[in-house]
Amino acid sequence: MDCYDAAEALSRPEIAQLQIGRLRRSLAQAAQSPFYARRFAEVGFDPESVHSLDDVGRIPFTTKQDLRDSYPDAMLALPHSEMVRMHASSGTTGTPTVIYHTQKDLDWWASLMARCMYMVGLRRTDVFQNMSGYGLFTGGLGIHYGAEKLGCLTIPAGAGNSHRQIKLLTDFKVTGIHIIPSYALYLHSIFAEIGVDPRDLPLRVALVGAEPYTEEARGRLQELYGIKAYNSYGLSEMNGPGVAFECQEQNGMHVWEDAYLAEIVDPATGEPVAEGELGELVMTTLGREGMPVIRYRTRDMTRFLPGQCPCGRAHRRIDRLHGRCDDMLIIKGVNIFPMQIERVLMAMPEVGQDYQIVLERDGYIDNIRVRVEIRDEFFVEDMRQLGALQKRIAARLRDEILVTPKVELVERNSLPKTEGKASRVVDKRESG
Ligand code: ADP
Ligand code: K
Ligand code: ZN
Questions:
Q1: Does domain 328-427 have CATH number 3.30.300.30?
Q2: Atom 9, ligand 1: which residue's CA is nearest?
Q3: What is the ipTM of this complex?
Q4: Is the CB–ligand 1 distance for residue 182 below 6 Å?
Q5: Which element (helix H / strand E) includes 301?
Q6: Are residues 132 and 140 in contact, defined by beta-carbon separation less than 8 angstroms?
Q7: Under CATH, to which class is 1-325 assigned?
Q8: Counting atoms of ligand 1 from 1, which one is nearest the CA of 421?
């Protein structure tokens, strides 16, 4: 195992020992903030009473609402003058929340990010293009400082402007990129339009994350670009990217447990799920000094993968994210995750790189309509063939989600594009 730093190579017992020490320090540090001082007092929790990892269940949770309520700075555990940067969540699900960092926090974050990149084979000789939005979104500066720390020539391309992205990729012989999955699928159609095959470029590694995507979508990206695509998970409350990352086995994401304490709980009860079961990821910062966040309810659904990773790293792995608990759709009484739909679509060769899920109301009945982009070569004039394809897609979806959706076939690039994270679901039930 070729590691970036010593903490990456720790054994299981070493990780556990490190974690309890750091957790105790993190709790003491959190108690310095107005928010946690009050919260701990209100619920009668004494941070000094935590002596082992078995005590974790007694520590109160922190929710997104808590972060909103402590806006703008009630969670700071050090004086305001110690802070050197702030980020805010992209607000996919409501009012943004703000996270502050000291210089030490930023240095640690950059090291974690550099560790992720080293793990997937990037080195100081690589040229790295960061195609995510900069600004308050952590995928910009977060990845950027990691890439620089590793020593890569780093191109802060930012989001959008596809022709310029392709020119940069080509002219500077880029070998590594960071890209959002929905944008990576879309960008391929621009490559096709200008007649460049990305497989002919020196590009070999992509860090892909920030929004849910399926194994099938990853497979497509690897095929279309001739690269390895590694899943990258993070959230602004836990810094941003660099929280959990795939190794070269591409079999689940290692959570960096020297920096984070991860738990998986039943979203309804907050109790730990049985080993290996699906639940909500709960995360604690173990080293952030400026703004520690304790037992944060991420609302992201995943599971711990059992067993040891063949790569030898002892940091536990989480499964590809199933989406957020609040992404779940309930149609005709059936629970559906948008990723179940993506899995079916991306496995069908006729389907192009984009889709949209529309929820509608027909009288008293909720219906689901899936608008599916069809590859140019399958978009034939023959109505019968298209009708047959439509039926086939509907049947496959039915097998997966247990309700029969209406399927609408659309031409390439006719679905609305968003800059940044894709919004796959449109809910028209209120207006109609
Ligand atoms: P927002 O909550 O406004 O989207 P963030 O930028 O902090 O703000 O986004 C973090 C969220 O993005 C995570 O909680 C998760 O839902 C999603 N996310 C990040 N990386 C991945 C990934 N690799 N797979 C699935 N979802 C991801
Ligand atoms: K370099
Ligand atoms: Zn591994």
A1: yes
A2: 235
A3: 0.97
A4: no
A5: strand 296-302
A6: yes
A7: alpha beta
A8: 4
